[in-house]
Write a structure and sequence with these properties.
Elements (H helix, E strand, L loop, with lengths): L11 H20 L17 H5 L32 H22 L4 H13 L7 H6 L5 H14 L16 H4 L1 H9 L5 H11 L8 H14 L1 H8 L1 H7 L17 E14 L4 E11 L5 E6 L4 H16 L6 E4 L8 H10 L2 E4 L9 H13 L12 H10 L2 H5 L4 H16 L14 H6 L13 H7 L9 E3 L5 E3 L2 E4 L12 E6 L7 E5 L6 E7 H4 L3 H27 L19 H14 L10 H19 L5 H13 L8 H13 L3 H17 L1
Parallel strand pairs: 1-4, 4-5
Antiparallel strand pairs: 1-2, 2-3, 6-9, 7-8, 8-11, 9-10, 10-11
Helix pairs in contact: 3-4, 4-6, 9-10, 11-12, 23-24, 25-26, 25-27
Amino acid sequence: MGNEYHISSLPPETQEALRTQNNEESGDSNQAGTETQPVDGGKLEAGSGLAERGAVPDRTVEPPKPQRNSVHCTLPVEVDPRNDDDRIARRNARLHILAVLTDYCRQHALNICECRDDFATQYNARRLPLPGWVTELIPTVSAPTLLRWASNLKVMGVDALAGNYGTRKGSGQIDNDEELRETILAFITQRPSHIYDELKRRFPKKKLPTKRTIERWVRKWRNNNPQQLARLRNINEYNSKFRSAAGSYSENITYALQRIEIDATKGDVFLNTGDKFERYSIIFMEDVFSRRAKAFVTKNSNSRTLVQTCLRWLLLNWGKSQYMAIRTDRGKDFISAYFLGCLEELGIDHEMCTGRSGWEKPFVERLFGTNTRNLLEQLPGYCGHDVAERQAIRSQMKPGDVTAMMTPNQLQEALDLWVAQYENTKHQGEGLDGKKTPLEKWAESPVALDLSYQENQRQLDILLAEAPGSGGLRTVQKKGIRVGDGWFINNDGLQVHWIGKQVKVRLDPFSEQDTIHCFNPETGEYLFTAEDFRAKGINRSEAAKAAHEQQKEIIEEVRQLKQLRDEAPDNVIPFNFRAKTRIQTESERVATEVVEALDAPEKEAQPLTPQQEEVRTRIAQRQTERATQPNETLAQRFFRLYLVSLKDGNEVLSEDDSAFVSHCLEKEVFPSMARLALKKHTQQQEAR
């Protein structure tokens, strides 16, 4: 007797499902006028193969007990093979068929060897209660095939039912054809049907795999390479799902205001501004140490708003730590000269993230997401995250919903309330561990914060004042300081001390750009305040008198310096000393002695030294040469001497002539003469 599968070997849920299917099948047959007996009574359907041959007696049969050598087959859960691997789908289908075969034999009280042939006939005629995906994968079966499946299941296990179809991994046509594979990968994000059409267009003469084969290969590649697929399709999806996050950007943060993250974006809420509906910008900043946060609603996010609103609020309310850094992205507002200049004046470092790398400031990015989910989505006027969501929301809006939108001030109040609740909620972040709120963590900071700007807001406003172009640097001129179209002077004439020097200028935030504050560009020290005399109506004559009075102090300082110079001892060289004598070389000194000796009155003849004799001979030779060529210019002299130096004869230049030629060649004094001399020398050589 062969292998048998009894229904009692299946789970109770599966047994009940099979009985229900058989009962429904029997009910359909009764309605069609076919004589049937209940399955439990052991009767077969009229017209079945076994009933016609009389193989089964018309009697009630007790279900046989499972045999000792029967193979227990669990009916798999019904799945859609199009969403699964082909081998797994084929295995599930065969396992399902074997389970139904076992139940078929039990219901008809037949030995499994006797009913395989009849089961195959019923299966091929589509008379058995099987799902459509099973018959689609396996259209026909035979008794030997069923026997082979049962044997493989018993000997090699469930995976043996998958079979050994297809080629080995990496040995198919697509894997072996590099050009074909690269073309498919180039269009891997598109639909397989589009890929097949593209292949037919590019390779009209090549025998291509079937469309079904390409679909299987593309589906398999997508399942095996989810990271690459996400990177190709959507970089944001890749960053949120697959980018490694093993480290922590708060690992070295040990005190409050050590690092603050700031970001700005357009809010997903339409606001009622009176005459129209607009989306305002929302700026969030968060302290990494404690997770304290603050939100600002502004019409536009620009450098002036960042400085005059966010930075000013930060210093007045939270204070400033000794070593403080602000981390932002590369938005034009955060890299503007005004914003960076204010951070430099305040001694705050600026940390700039890599382009399109939001994970480098993760805390403020998550804060935006939390705020959107918990608050903005609940507000009237919410317009969605993307175009599709906005279209869906607009399609559901009613005319009355427009008038119910919030104003910018109401949104700011809602954000303030939400932030207050956020700061009093226990967080799961690193260092908080779900036990502390941001305010409690803030109180644990070991570093004291500087709140001195609360007492001197005027100084802070001047430091945060906007600077004119060129980084705010201006050179003080005789007429004053030029800023824009105006000339700025100090009423007391203090600018005269900086005439010819540069100062750093800040526009006064409380005036209509007619007052500036000047600082030392190196130390940042405050120098003076200057005003536009045209806009302010300053009496220039009085300002000129004050400037002259200031210059008197400078003149007095110069007089004292001259007095110190005059009173300097003899061994101190005055600062305006200019040497009136030229230091002589050794040759010039010897020549001078020879000339003096010749011009002196005759004395007793004294023998000359060998060096003096040499100089005397050289001078006499030079005088002879000058007598033969009295009108020779320097250029002619160079040409003559340089031509002599090029010759290979015995004629040797004197030391002075040699020095003269070397100097002219080194400094390129007579380049044209040098070229002529070389040309003439070449011609002479060729003539020889």
